[in-house]
Amino acid sequence: MSFEYTEITDPLYVDNKEQTGEDDYIMVRAKEYGDVPINIPNWQPAAHCYTTRFHRHEKELLEMEVFPDDVWVASYPKSGTTWCQEMVWLICNDLNFEAARAESLRTRFPFVDVSLIHDAQMNSFERVRNTARPRFIKTHLPVSMLPKQYWTVKPKTVYVKRNPKSVAVSYYHHSRGIFYRGTMDTFVRSFIREHQFYSPYHAHVIEYHELRDCNNILHLSYEDMKRDLPAVVRKVCQFFGKSYSEPQLAELCEHLSFRSMRENKACNYEDQSNVPREAGERFMRKGELASWKQELTSEQIEMLDQWTEANTPNIEHRKLFE
């Protein structure tokens, strides 16, 4: 068996799982990870949080075919993934705004591993297999769980990260909009205990940044995209070998503005009628930097800061979470 499965026995999880809607969570650890080119001495991957659905798809995950012309966007959930996907897709597709508006991002850029955590209308691995090349693929997989072929093929990949306090708040609202029935406080405490999908969070970010000889991966941050989107767009263009005029880049930045993205149905999954959302709740909510200051209590902020400090004894790693 390539993965090790462990039940979650943490009292907070056990006492709340039925009320919050998290009753089928499980921790999964990769047992075969020798192909991962990581700089961390004596590295052993942690167990990551999924649902019991993982069992059904582990072979498809490991044996997934990867092509040199694939384009991947990877992240921990709620790190600016959708924003990054739309930017990457347009840059790689000659700024075809008409095509981008005409077809949902989830069709143009399928989420390969969603079947590991949710029931989907179509097996997500099958959906990617059936996608015409060049394929654009979204993933939240940690480095230890990427398909075996990823490390030999090394497709172009953009990894985007985000401040943990912003992630916590955005992840709570996202989960509540789909299935979660607990409070913000319960969610934050669960997040800190690494019992949300794809956690542990810090390991996810650090391990991607500690990969060696992986020039196929470009690292971005949500905060940089908010502070200076044109600079990030130029960096992504250079990474993919694309060149556009200043008016074209200005049009792209306008398309990628939060106001435009929030009203763009192709990026808001508003055609996904099987996913319920609370009245007035949008897939894209605020799009602000540090909006967590208005939503988290001082106790929650302190817990999250202490959690980051405890998980980043390396000072250089700590800079990734500022």
In short:
With 322 residues, the chain is an alpha/beta fold. The chain has 17 helices and seven strands.
DSSP, total strands: 7
Described by the principal axes of the CA atoms, the overall outline is globular
> Would you identify the regions where 5 or more consecutive residues have pLDDT less than 50?
270-283
Main sheet: strands, sense, barrel: 4 strands, parallel
* Beta-strand content estimate: 5-15%
- How are the strands ordered across the major sheet? 5-4-6-7
Number of continuous helical runs: 17
State the order of secondary-structure elements, H for helix, E for strand: EHEEHEHHHHEHEHHHEHHHHHHH
The Cα radius of gyration reads 19 Å
Class based on secondary structure composition and strand pairing: alpha/beta
pLDDT averaged residue by residue: 93
Helix content: 40-55%
Q: In angstroms, what separates the terminal alpha carbons?
A: 38 Å
Can you give a write-up of this model?
- The chain has 322 residues and is an alpha/beta fold.
- 43% of the residues lie in helices and 11% in strands.
- The protein has 17 helices and seven strands.
- It has helices at residues 11-20, 54-62, 81-92, 97-102, 105-108, 124-129, 150-153, 164-178, 184-192, 201-209, 222-227, 229-239, 246-255, 258-263, 292-295, 298-311, 315-318, and strands at residues 3-6, 25-30, 48-51, 71-75, 136-139, 156-161, 217-221.
- Helix 8 (164-178) packs across helix 9 and helix 9 runs parallel beside helix 16 (298-311).
- The longest helix has 15 residues, at 164-178.
